[in-house]
Design a protein that fits this description.
single chain; alpha+beta; eight-stranded mixed β-sheet; 18 helices; globular
């Protein structure tokens, strides 16, 4: 079994991506061009990524005192990816892009995530450049973004600091104007940055000519003090190597130094770094301080950075999904080929009979079906969100605004739900392998380690949950939540006309009502501390409801397809999710609705 038939079904039979060709931006495309992109990415992933997934896990990046050393396979994969044009796939023809729908781009990138999630850092480079195309000046676009799209430069996002972690309010990196003429630099107002950034993926390597860091920092006030909170945060372009207005390297190194490599349990093929900005190791023009160019307005840096952060959240969700999918396919193959145990008959087991393959055991089927429901459901969710991006950018005004709001509400789910439940799929894949699952003779233990990072990448569950319950479902008078409920109800109404789906439609309607009631109950006192005490159970229940909706909608598309093993599998995965998973939301929503304080009120000495 391969991924491609599932991708094709979701893109064409469910999302009807070919209808995007009717829009001016995508008019040059067809099923043939979409297939050609998928074919190319599938081939590169198969040839340049998958064979080296174990290699990059065991041969971690190391620093020789001057540079970070990565396996040759990583260099080859990066070159092949850049040559494919995928870094600029969604960009205008005029800047070397394909004007490819983001839905197709996301589907194509799924092959790389499944083949080896930690070899490439294209998501960061593309997200960095996309941010600059929206918020940068013409010179910043030309010098930095376009060179990232070509693969000549690569990009990072530098948010976290050792003392602050996810608390961006506590960012202490400082940016001060660089000379009396700082505002006149053709690359943007020029500043000198000093501070430390932690957990910076792809922060140091030799894969590209230059690394473009997007750095959050604060500009001191007239008294030299940093403004508390996020209001004072600005965004800066800080290249590893100084460039001129033509984008050429000047030969001078910027004052950005590698302080250390972080060694994580997974994603070992990607360098993860602690970077020191402005410590004086590489003085520019004889002065300590990393040279950075302001992006957008001073004090509005977090607003700009959210463009990249939200894109990265969907990317993390896709990475988690595809790691789960890789484990599912590996354990499916193992279950089909591993003989062990005998079936139970009226007289018990007959030891004289040969052992059966473990896929014939009901509990193994349960674990496989759970993985299938989590991973294929999550893939459908991620591609649905990608389709919303295309709607936001190319639909008529009203539909585009609806897509924007729906995406706001769904982004915390798109990031967090696969990070939790596709990790559970990886755990089940290990279980199916039995004792072998814990060994490096099989890939499933690596998939689990790689996926464990995604629960923290781009904001923990707690952060995403507070964003969902504390902001997204309330924003614009709850319009986004109302829009989502409308989409879910549309699916329910269609499903009620299919007799075999009627019970599932009613179950989904009840779940939606429970989520709505819990949302109101959580905020009934108007106290955020009461409402948000159980934000994570709310996120879990909300996510399960969304996935039940996605599965029912996918099942409606499958129901109309010709009979096949794939159709049978999709309908079974939908039934599994409704029978085994959706009922869990009652317990989660109970503590939300009652604003249970068991956790919040417990004094620390009681732990």
């Amino acid at each position: 079994m391969t991924l491609r038939p599932t991708v094709d079904f979701l893109l064409h039979d469910w999302l009807h991506v070919e209808t995007l060709q009717q829009r001016e931006r995508f008019a040059d495309h067809s099923r043939e061009t979409f297939d050609a992109v998928l074919d190319t990415c599938e081939r590169i992933a198969r040839e340049k990524y998958a064979p080296f997934n174990r290699l990059v896990d065991t041969q971690e990046p190391h620093f020789d005192g001057e540079r970070v050393i990565l396996p040759q396979a990583t260099h080859d994969a990066q070159k092949a990816y850049a040559a494919s044009g995928m870094l600029s796939a969604a960009q205008d023809y005029e800047v070397g892009g394909m004007q490819l729908p983001y839905t197709v781009e996301a589907a194509a990138n799924a092959f790389f995530a499944m083949a080896s999630v930690s070899i490439g850092s294209g998501m960061l480079t593309t997200g960095n450049a996309n941010l600059l195309m929206v918020h940068g000046t013409d010179a910043q676009k030309r010098v930095f973004a376009l060179n990232e799209f070509s693969g000549r430069f690569s990009g990072t996002m530098c948010l976290s600091e050792p003392q602050a972690g996810s608390s961006l309010s506590d960012v202490s990196t400082r940016a001060v104007p660089d000379g009396a003429d700082f505002a006149d630099d053709p690359l943007g107002p020029r500043y000198r940055l000093k501070g430390n950034k932690m957990w910076i993926s792809a922060g140091e390597h030799e894969l590209t000519e230059n690394i473009i860091h997007l750095v959050l920092a604060k500009i001191p006030d007239e008294h030299g003090k940093l403004v508390p909170g996020t209001r004072g945060i600005s965004l800066f372009i800080v290249p590893k190597k100084i460039v001129n207005i033509a984008g050429e390297l000047t030969g001078e190194r910027n004052d950005v130094a590698l302080a250390g490599l972080n060694h994580k349990c997974g994603w070992r093929g990607t360098t993860n770094t602690l970077l020191n900005f402005g410590e004086g190791k590489y003085p520019v023009g004889g002065e300590a301080g990393a040279v950075g160019y302001l992006v957008g307005q001073a004090g509005k840096g977090l607003h700009c950075m959210f463009h990249m952060m939200n894109e990265a959240r969907i990317g993390v969700g896709m990475a988690a999904t595809m790691l789960g999918m890789a484990g599912y396919l590996a354990s499916l193959d193992y279950a089909k080929n591993r003989p062990q145990g005998r079936p139970m008959g009226p007289a018990g087991k007959d030891p004289a009979q040969p052992p059966v393959r473990i896929i014939e055991h009901a509990d193994v089927k349960r674990m496989l079906l759970a993985q299938k429901s989590y991973c294929e459901g999550a893939l459908a969710l991620e591609l649905y969100c990608a389709r919303l991006v295309d709607e936001q950018h190319t639909a008529e005004a009203a539909a585009a605004d609806d897509a924007r709001l729906l995406l706001e509400v769904l982004t915390p789910i798109a990031k967090s739900w696969p990070s939790e439940w596709c990790l559970e799929a990886n755990s089940l894949a290990i279980q199916i392998h039995g004792g072998y699952g814990y060994t490096r003779d099989f890939p499933v233990e690596q998939y689990w380690r790689d996926n464990r990072l995604n629960m923290i990448h781009e904001g923990t569950h707690g952060i995403q949950a507070m964003d969902l319950l504390g902001r997204k479902v309330l924003m614009e008078g709850g319009k986004g939540l109302t829009l989502l409920a409308g989409r879910i109800n549309d699916t329910i109404q269609r499903a009620l006309h299919v007799p075999e789906f009627a019970a599932h439609a009613n179950a989904l309607g009840l779940a939606l009502a429970q989520v709505g009631a819990a949302t109101q109950a959580a905020w009934s006192t108007g106290e955020p501390t009461d409402a948000l005490a159980n934000a994570v159970p709310y996120l879990q229940a909300f996510g399960h409801t969304v996935l039940a909706w996605v599965w029912l909608d996918v099942a409606l598309a499958a129901h109309g397809a010709p009979d096949s093993a794939a159709r049978t599998g999709r309908l079974a995965a939908m039934r599994f999710f409704f029978h085994y998973e959706l009922p869990k939301i009652g317990a989660w929503l109970q503590v939300v609705s009652s604003r249970d304080q068991t956790c919040a009120a417990l004094p620390e000495e009681a732990f």
